[in-house]
Design brief:
By secondary structure, this protein is α/β, with parallel strands linked by helices. It has a single domain, classed as Thiamin diphosphate (ThDP)-binding fold, Pyr/PP domains (Rossmann fold, 3-Layer(aba) Sandwich), CATH 3.40.50.970. The chain has 13 helices and eleven strands. The radius of gyration is 20 Å and the shape is globular. The structure holds thiamine diphosphate and magnesium ion.
Amino acid sequence: MTITLPNFLSPEPEKENPAAPAIPLPAEPEAAITGATTLSKAVTVPLGEGEAATLSQEAAVNESEAAAESAVAAEGAAWVTRQTVVAGSRELGLYRGMRFIRRFEETLLGLFEEGILNGTTHACIGQEADAAGVIEHLREGDHIFSNHRCHGHYLAWTGDALGLMAEIMGKEAGVCAGIGGSQHICAEGFMSNGVQGGILPTAAGIALAKKLKGEDTISVVFMGDGTLGEGAVYETLNMASLWELPLLIVLEDNEWAQSTPVALNTAGSMRARFEAFGLPVSEVESTDVLEISSHAEELVEAVRTTGKTHVLVIHTYRLCHHSKSDDHRPEEEVALRWQTEPLAVHRQRLAEADWQAIDASVEEELAGIVAKARALP
Ligand SMILES: Cc1ncc(C[n+]2csc(CCOP(=O)(O)OP(=O)(O)O)c2C)c(N)n1
Ligand SMILES: [Mg+2]
């Protein structure tokens, strides 16, 4: 079996024909499968059938498409954001992105029970707003590094749900030919690894490469609270600060590291650990995608313009078990946190008919993806 992985470092920016109004969407992964859904490239996703009551769908979609193109053209920017716009609305787009991640993972857990997945899997149920809120500010040429809990980050970045599903099923058409599984994904601008802390030096290395190449792209790494216990993290913080690397560290503090609560695992202040290395820290305790997004927007911009490392600490909560059936947390604690789960929080600002239409369209799309992935050799 020949495995060809995508070139991890983006190619040199296109220099020919600078006048062309090019909007360079990311290249399709080499093992691309037709039908893969794009969730969060700069695209518009129409709502499913039946929602026309509240939105003039086609008009809105056309409007948002035109707006996205003209904004890019007006700035002359050779990039677009990863923001998904559904029926002309960023807020609906964010909801769809999070809903898709949620249902993708719930579906995965069901498939795991069937015994048709390769290896293990860790869901980010409850943390979808982190992926959606941060990644909407990233753009072509940036690089994302993730960990064992990477599906949300991957889907928000690439939208390649079929590639990921096939990968976790161990199919050759998967994004890494079926050998990376749930935790070890390598795609254009994306890498995840299950070795706790191991991705931080890698993310810093890519940030250094960007700096040396004089790019204005950034490297973003997602890590968990329990990973603050890894020594490689602190070596990375030291170098990132000394060398002024264009790196955004996103710490998703979900209060638990597998079976250990943060209070038994992490002494002192998380913020102070980063500040000890002279790194600016922004902290948010929220499951509201818009609140997280506004912090992320500021920090992404700060990293991009100063070229220096910044840290975003998001205090959140994991609503599922650590992996498949391992949960050591008090039931009352988990039940309380379901009351502020990100989809419910964001739904409050949406019209019911709109989010219901999105839910229906996500179900339809996911069913198609699962069917296609099952049928793959
Ligand atoms: C070096 C290393 N040690 C142990 C593990 C096993 N392990 C996988 S996830 C995990 C807990 C991670 O906790 P945290 O960083 O808080 O991330 P979360 O699972 O909460 O998202 C552990 C101990 C590992 N993957 N790598
Ligand atoms: Mg944790």
